[in-house]
Amino acid sequence: MTTTNENATVSAPEQRISLPEQSPAFYQAMVALDRAARQGVDPVLAELVKVHASMINGCSFCIDMHATDALKNGEQNHRLLSLPAWRETSWFTAKERAALALTESVTLLTQGHVPDAVYQEAAEHFEQAELAQLIALIITINSWNRIGVTSRLSPAAK
After folding, report:
1. Vertex 125, ends 123 and 129: CA angle to 5°?
2. What is the pTM (predicted TM-score) of this model?
3. CB 150 within 8 A of CB 57
4. What is the pLDDT of residues 51-70, one digit of tens each?
5. How far apart are CA 57 and CA 153, in angstroms?
């Protein structure tokens, strides 16, 4: 009889490439883009958006990093865990819901683009400059997700 440890963790996939090492100028540009995209966006909302986009894109590295950051910023665990079903909950504000809907539309661009209703809802909750920053933040996290997924970044074991 073979016994296995059912509680043993499985090794993460091997990282394919390190962009900071192989393309340092691009990577530094991404860091600068990230810094610029975050300006003026509420840190808690920013992390909700980053976690939500990362969940949609399946980027485990970014989910782990931004969920950790969200909790450090005072976000509640039950809200993070329910992001995939945010429409069925009552604990996101109208402003957060507009940001989450916009995040989905921008992230899933090939599934109907960004509908006017989604954009208009966001425009009703965010001033133009804040909306521009939110869009920049969504675009940036989607870029980071593509870096993480393509290069197979994995969160550190805990």
Report:
1. 60
2. 0.91
3. no
4. 999 999 999 999 999 999 99
5. 13
Angle at 21 between CA 17 and CA 24, to 5 degrees: 120
Query: What is the identity of the amino acid at 63?
Result: I
27-34 contacts, C-beta under 8 A, 24 or more apart: 30/140, 30/143, 30/144, 30/147, 33/140, 33/143, 34/140, 34/144
The residue assigned the tokens 């006017």 is 116
75-115 per-position pLDDT tens digit: 999 999 999 999 999 999 999 999 999 999 999 999 999 99
Neighbours of 146 (CB within 10 A): 12
Instruction: Determine the 3-state secondary structure of 49 from DSSP.
Output: helix
CA angle 151, 112, 41 (to 5 degrees): 65
Assess contact for 64 and 155: CB atoms under 8 A: yes
Mapped onto helix, strand or coil, the DSSP state of residue 153 is coil
